[in-house]
Specification:
By secondary structure, this protein is of the alpha+beta class. The protein has 11 helices and 11 strands. 39% of the residues lie in helices and 16% in strands.
Length: 374
Amino acid sequence: MAATPEPLQRINAVDFRAPPPSPVAPGRQSPFANDDVLTEYLQQSLRVPDLVLPDRAFPRQKSAQNPPRLDFEKLGSIETEMGFRICDLIAQIGCLEVINHGISPDLMGLVLFLAGGMFQIPPERKKKAARSPERRYGFEEIHGEEEMRDQGEEFLWCDEEAMKLEMEGIWPFGFSNFSQEMRKLSKQMEEVGRRVMLFLQQHSSKKLLPENGWPEEQELAGKVCYIQKHGQKMGGEQSENSLRYDVIRMLIKGSEFSHALSLHVWSGTTDFHVYSKKGWVSFSPARNSIVVTVGDKLQGWSGGQYKHVIGRPFFKGENEKSNISMAFLYSPPKFINSIKEDEDFTISISQQFILCVLLILIYRFLISIYHLFI
């Protein structure tokens, strides 16, 4: 009887599998057409960016000296070298302080007091004068967290007849008097802004020029004022949240009205905060002084020498009814080089003597010519 060969049975019983793939030798070519491009793509895609997170909600307070304090009555007599030093300090901080400006403290106090009555108008009347795309003046409607709504209110004043007629219907017993005094103060604040712009023009290291030339008609800046009623003083984390909220609102509104300078006045005792992209500084201004901050127009005209900053008073008192501040926006009505000091034109004695000699010579010359033709 024939028997099945044993080797064949063993071959059928074994579970045959394919051998594993051999590794690619280092010297063999990659299956990709351009290995360098793939490597660079992977390196760029897998790279984790370096993130630098801020310490706080907004930059920390910088340690800086107080801004230059200019005597308004002596602006025209400041020496050239000293003027350049002052302008360099203004460029670093973004603001200056003006004293002896000649505006009556009684007028400033009266306008601030009358402005406080505006915020006592009932809420339903304020809604009728709320700002909108069709109405750029009026009360600012504050959106956000409920605790932030009680920190202050704002009213945008502009010298327009439409606003006067509308506000007289909403606040009939107070707005006429307020508007009359406000126009007086606005005109004097405009003169302060004009003189400060002239000082900067004369002592800046760069000539102040508009970015795209001067338009035929200037914007209303100079006839616009932000009037703000500030809330009560707070401390700790609540105060920081309030400051953060104010900074965000001010940054959003910073370009709403393009301007060269912003002139700030307030009631009571206060510190003043100046915010910029690099941080913020705080100082204590003199009583009845005017703090002037740099606007976006001046930054453009100076080629970035002066940086646009945002200013805000920070009240120390707890009586929020009297915590009123105003920020007047100013832009020169024409090219800054055409702004002249209001001084009488005088001729010195030496110039008068030279003029007399010239007239005598011209007279004799004309007489000699006359005799030649007679």
